[in-house]
Automatic annotation (TrEMBL):
GO terms for cellular component: cytosol. It comes from Nitrosomonas marina. The lineage of its organism: Bacteria, Pseudomonadati, Pseudomonadota, Betaproteobacteria, Nitrosomonadales. NCBIfam families: rRNA_methyl_3 (TIGR00186). This is 23S rRNA (guanosine-2'-O-)-methyltransferase RlmB. It comes from the Bacteria.
Amino acid sequence: MSTTRIIFGFHAVISRLRQHPDSVREIYVDAGRSDQRIRSLASLAESRQVRLIFCEHDRLEKMAGGSRHHSVAAIVDQTILASSIDDVLDALNGPARLLILDGIQDPHNLGACLRVADAFGVHAVIAPKDRAVGLTATVYQVSSGAADTVPYIAVTNLARTMRQIKARDIWIVGTADDAEHDLHDFSIHSSVAWVFGSEEKGMRRLTRETCDQLVRIPMQGGVESLNVSVSAGICLFETFRQHSGKINNGN
Ligand SMILES: C[S@@+](CC[C@H](N)C(=O)[O-])C[C@H]1O[C@@H](n2cnc3c(N)ncnc32)[C@H](O)[C@@H]1O
């Protein structure tokens, strides 16, 4: 028997319908809405043969349990995009791009990290099973569908997983505002795993020590550090920029 979960919001529900229509059991829509957005969703659901149920606003509120639902929810089967890092790496036929998140607590940050991971072609997001938020309904919603496109792999021992990644010739770059190397002067390896720390404490000591190199994003103002998803966006954009430059220059 497969486990189900509830996802909320137009982006999350539409993305799930497009990526994994067979996993969508039913969709709930606020009966008070009949605008164009709802009509497009209804026609997409019909084309994928998924039942759309118009219900009272209160029912959606209860289903959402405090999350913002934007008048739409869906009951879906849990999808597992990949169960191990080896699954992901074995399926690649080019350089790897990975994102390692060491203990993100805030679902908004994890959702935003998944979103930038999707935008910049990350092959998997890896995080510890314990002391990290995991794929909650809010993460799904904030990720705007990226939780359905980027494999999220929760591991028991992050440092051990990092060593496995290194053994596959992937360069591991940790990020910290006190790192010696500056992102400006940093040539990013073709296969790279970026590591980001938690909101409050940054990377744990062992995680930091297991990195091949540490890099900082230069900042000008008075704040000590950037938000983790903003940092991930900057580093992944820079990776994308350098790697596409290499392709364009024929290197
Ligand atoms: C909010 S910061 C953590 C701040 C925490 N107080 C610390 O001591 O690291 C969350 C994560 O974003 C990344 N980050 C934030 N600012 C950065 C910067 N200027 N350069 C590199 N990474 C940064 C790091 O991965 C950091 O662990």
